[in-house]
Amino acid sequence: MSRALLVSPSPAARAAEERLRATYEFVPPAEAEMIVALGGDGYMLQVLHHMLESRSIKPVFGMNLGTVGFLMNEWRLDRLEQRIASAKPFKVNPLRMSVITVEGEEISLPAINEVSLLRETRQTARIEVSVNDRVALPELVCDGVLVATPAGSTAYNLSAHGPILPLGSGLIALTPISPFRPRRWRGAILPESTKVRFRILDPHKRPVSAVGDQREVRDVATVEVAIDRTTPLTLLFDPEHTLDDRIAAEQFIA
């Protein structure tokens, strides 16, 4: 299988690139059947987003030369061809956020981990939350709220005390960030077929931004979030250290 090599700009990744190119053959990305990515989770998200934008979807085998590397395999120089041949594929369906800003601009962006709504000022946000066109919370007073996929449930969602979702669970997490009212609401676990809609109740006095993974849209009026099944992504993992194993293990880390 022909492969391309994409590398983050970090010194560690660049040094590893030299060793890989001296040992294995790679082709330009446009000619490749799959991608090898060197870096951390942030770089992996960049690679996946670029594929979504270019509509050129290929399996990705990542090797960690970043910090956490939750979406990556262990960095090793040896046996790359054998590792790719025996890798276990995981399909990841990204979220799609459809935004209308205060000025009426319409923006659509994908998100592999989560879509987050965040207050822009010192004042709390006031957000109406609808689930499948039914108002579930007439007013959520909070620092923000997010929708996370299973792949992203151990990232920002977990830091906000949201649930860890196993891959293949067919679920998404709806998690508040520092909720003030309703004070005891801790979020919801919803079927992945659910459409979640947020309406900012006072967007001029209490402005809110929407962030899809790493890309932000400021001063939003409404945001709709749903799973996008038209562009599934494939991540490749070593059989002994797969993503579902990692997600399960996170539930036992104190």
UniProtKB/TrEMBL annotation:
One of its GO terms (biological process) is NADP+ biosynthetic process. One of its GO terms (molecular function) is metal ion binding. It comes from the Bacteria. Its cofactor is a divalent metal cation. Pfam families: NAD_kinase, NAD_kinase_C. It catalyses: NAD(+) + ATP = ADP + NADP(+) + H(+). Its EC number is 2.7.1.23. It is found in: Cytoplasm. The active site is at residue 41. InterPro entries: ATP-NAD_kinase_N (IPR017438), ATP-NAD_kinase_PpnK-typ_C (IPR017437), NAD/diacylglycerol_kinase_sf (IPR016064), NADK (IPR002504). It is an enzyme of class 2 (transferase). Keywords: ATP-binding, Cytoplasm, Kinase, NAD, NADP, Nucleotide-binding, Transferase. NAD(+) binds at residues 41-42, 113-114, 143, 151, 154-159. One of its GO terms (cellular component) is cytoplasm. Its main location: cytoplasm. Involved in the regulation of the intracellular balance of NAD and NADP, and is a key enzyme in the biosynthesis of NADP. Catalyzes specifically the phosphorylation on 2'-hydroxyl of the adenosine moiety of NAD to yield NADP. Belongs to the NAD kinase family. This is NAD kinase. The lineage of its organism: Bacteria, Pseudomonadati, Pseudomonadota, Alphaproteobacteria, Sphingomonadales.
